[in-house]
Amino acid sequence: MPTPLAATWNQCLALITNEIPRRSFKTWFEQVDPVSLNRDEEGGAELVLSVPSRFFGEWIESNYAGVLRKVTSEVVGQDTRIFFAYEKNAPEPAHVTNIEMETPAAARPPAPVAPMQPTPPRPAVPPQSAALGSGHASPGRQAPVDPNLRPGYTFDTFIEGECNRFARSAAQAIARQPGGTSFNPFLVYGGVGLGKTHLVQAIGNHARANGTAERILYISSEQFISQFVRAIQQNNVAAFSSFYRGVDLLVVDDIQFLSGKEKTQEEFFHVFNTLHQTGKQIVLCSDRPPSEIKGIEERLLSRFQWGLTADVQPADLETRCAILQGKAEKHGLVLEPDVVAFIAEHVTQNIRALEGALTRLVAHAQLDGGRITLSVARGLLSGLVDNEPKPVSIESIQTIVAELINIPIAQLSARTRTRDVVTARHLAMYFSKEMTTNSLKSIGLRFGGRDHSTVIHACNAVTDRMDVDAEFRDLVDEARSAIERKARV
Ligand code: ADP
Ligand code: MG
User: Fold this and answer.
1) Peptide bond into 121 cis (omega under 30)
2) CB 258 near ligand 1, within 6 Å
3) Position 147 pLDDT exceeds 90
4) CA nearest 52: which of 73, 69, 27?
5) Which atom in ligand 1 lies closest to the alpha carbon of residue 164?
């Protein structure tokens, strides 16, 4: 039978599962254990929970204080104060055995859940201990490392959305105290162009700007492999090895490329162990979840999952709009909301493609000094845009409209002024303006060499009539969908 304390906590957990997403629950509450529950005479209670690290408690405090308060007031009692106890200096995730309690009665009471306590800044990581390196990598004499970071890849420029919220907050927490959270290693995975590299570099840039880590290094696993191969050829493996063991924050991108590289994997295994044991932060990216990476040794794969694994998903429409807007502004380009929405609706597969689209618009704006209207955007992006059918041609619009109204197509360019022909001509001109990027002048030319003002007149005639004639509106809709269906193939 569970102890009363365990039973009480289990009841709390059961309620918490109803309140927060399953993934958050697994990450944050599965590692919490009840330590004690003391009730006082006034009916209040004090619940002490053990967490793997100070950071962990702070995270729960700042994100789940409300939930915890609600749940404990139901299960334990209205006036329940909650304390977190953690093992000091714990770099390891979970499995806390000897909790060195910072008991409420001791000199420094741990923070109650409310009010929140600000996190004291962590001092910069001290120089390496002698155990980490030898030769040129000994403490005090370490050459500075070029972190290999792109300055633009910061948290500020990384737009948050549902798709990356979890990974982004974890990354920020890590950047504030590399090696000081239970997220070690931190593994981000997700498809190409979804922001993994940007996000992990943001950790490095933040740590660098704020001095939370001294020796920071971003490297792709391909670079790691080729450096290692060179080290072997040049009989330099010891130096290679001690260099990597002297890094405080190591970011290795695209670890899936380690696949099949057994020797490199073995070397990386040792580097990993040394860094992890000495509380140095390791950050990894992969294009798929670790369970799906083939050709990497089991012992390495299991280590990759020791800390926290977070995915980035394709961005939703809203996030894509926000990213696009942000990037456009950086280029000094003001985009109309309908243009932003159009691009974000059509360029869906990843953020890199979204940037490609933007580059075209920027070039157009700079070279042609052009304003970017919806049809300009449509024209510029045809072919690039996902699922975006080929642009409609005036000819196909003419064919479809003539067919719909049942007149010979040649009549559109003739001088005929019968009612049906005029309607058809107006409609075809109207759609040519709306659905193609042709100028009014060239539209007029394609309708028997008419003037551009005729085209304007036709467009106005259509919109005016739509305002007052419901049947005509239906005809316009029917024509539009016929064109969408047939012309864009
Ligand atoms: P991955 O490493 O997952 O293939 P990247 O990090 O290289 O993707 O991202 C591709 C491009 O998209 C980069 O230029 C990056 O700045 C941009 N990007 C991705 N996600 C975001 C985001 N959430 N906010 C702003 N830019 C983003
Ligand atoms: Mg990448």
Assistant:
1) no
2) no
3) yes
4) 27
5) 23
**Mind listing the pLDDT tens digit for each residue in 424-457?**
999 999 999 988 888 899 999 999 999 999 999 9
> Which among 341, 335, 347, 351 is positioned nearest to 318, based on CA atoms?
341
Q: Is 197 in the pocket of ligand 1 (CB under 6 A)?
A: yes
Q: At what angle do helices 470-487 and 419-435 cross, to 10 degrees?
A: 50
Lowest mean pLDDT among 92-96, 316-320, 346-350, 382-386: 92-96
Q: Ligand 1 in contact with 196 (CB < 6 A)?
A: yes
Cis bond leading into 4, ω under 30°? no
pLDDT surpassing 70 at residue 84: yes
Q: Rounded mean pLDDT of 462-470?
A: 91
SS (HEC) of the chain: CCCHHHHHHHHHHHHHHHHCCHHHHHHHCCCCEEEEEEECCCCCEEEEEEECCHHHHHHHHHHHHHHHHHHHHHHCCCCEEEEEEECCCCCCCCCCCCCCCCCCCCCCCCCECCCCCCCCCCCCCCCCCHHHCCHHHCCCCCCCCCCCCCCCCCCCCCCCCCCCHHHHHHHHHHHHCCCCCCCCCEEEECCCCCCHHHHHHHHHHHHHHHCCCCCEEEEEHHHHHHHHHHHHHCCCHHHHHHHHHCCCEEEEECHHHHCCCHHHHHHHHHHHHHHHHCCCEEEEEECCCHHHCCCCCHHHHHHHCCCEEEECCCCCHHHHHHHHHHHHHHCCCCCCHHHHHHHHHHCCCCHHHHHHHHHHHHHHHHHCCCCCCHHHHHHHHCCCCCCCCCCCCHHHHHHHHHHHHCCCHHHHCCCCCCHHHHHHHHHHHHHHHHHCCCCHHHHHHHCCCCCHHHHHHHHHHHHHHHHHCHHHHHHHHHHHHHHHHHHCC
Instruction: Note the pLDDT tens digit of each residue in 338-392.
Output: 899 889 988 888 898 899 889 888 888 888 777 888 888 888 887 666 544 556 8
Contact 55, 173 (CB under 8 A): yes
The Cα 289–Cα 310 span in angstroms is: 9
Which atom of ligand 1 lies at the shortest distance from residue 315's CA? 23
Higher per-residue confidence, 415 vs 91: 415
> Which domains does the chain show, CATH number per domain?
4-86 (3.30.300.180), 145-311 (3.40.50.300), 317-385 (1.10.8.60), 394-488 (1.10.1750.10)
Q: Is there an atom of ligand 1 within 6 Å of 198 CB?
A: yes
The pTM assigned to this predicted structure is 0.58
